[in-house]
Amino acid sequence: MQWTLDEIAQGILASYEAVGGLNNTDRHNLPSKRALDNLCEQLLQFLFPGFHDERPIHKNELAEITTDRLRALALQFEDQIEKSLSVKNPSGSASLANEVLMRFLGTLAGVRELLRTDILAAYEGDPAAVSSEEIILSYPFIEAIAIQRCAHVLYREG
After folding, report:
1. Number of folded domains that form the chain
2. Cα dihedral 32, 37, 42, 45 in deg (nearest 10)
3. How confident is the model at residue 120 (pLDDT cuts 50, 70, 90)?
């Protein structure tokens, strides 16, 4: 049997209804995985300036870049936090999202301190490691730990 694109589309639409697994605005509009991926990359740029950038960051640019990144991160993050909170509390999620966001952002300097200890432990545990910078650049688990530490703070705060 030969299918038409319209028939295939109708079958897929029927599966959305029958099977679920659809994020839509009829119920709760959950956070977007793509938006969260983007936020994770922004967090890594913020936590490890220069290591997730296409060009080096000069010291005299660092304050401006950090402030700009913080503002961009806050704008995008608040929306995703609000979507997460609306699952449990649809009516009061907007103001709570801002509170959670600000508490979270306020912990990032402390998260960087914890990451420093993670990087140091990796460096001291690997006799072939040459520098802390090598650990940040070459050891993918550092990125995973960084995101996990941020996720833990968000869980605790919200």
Report:
1. 1
2. 170
3. very high
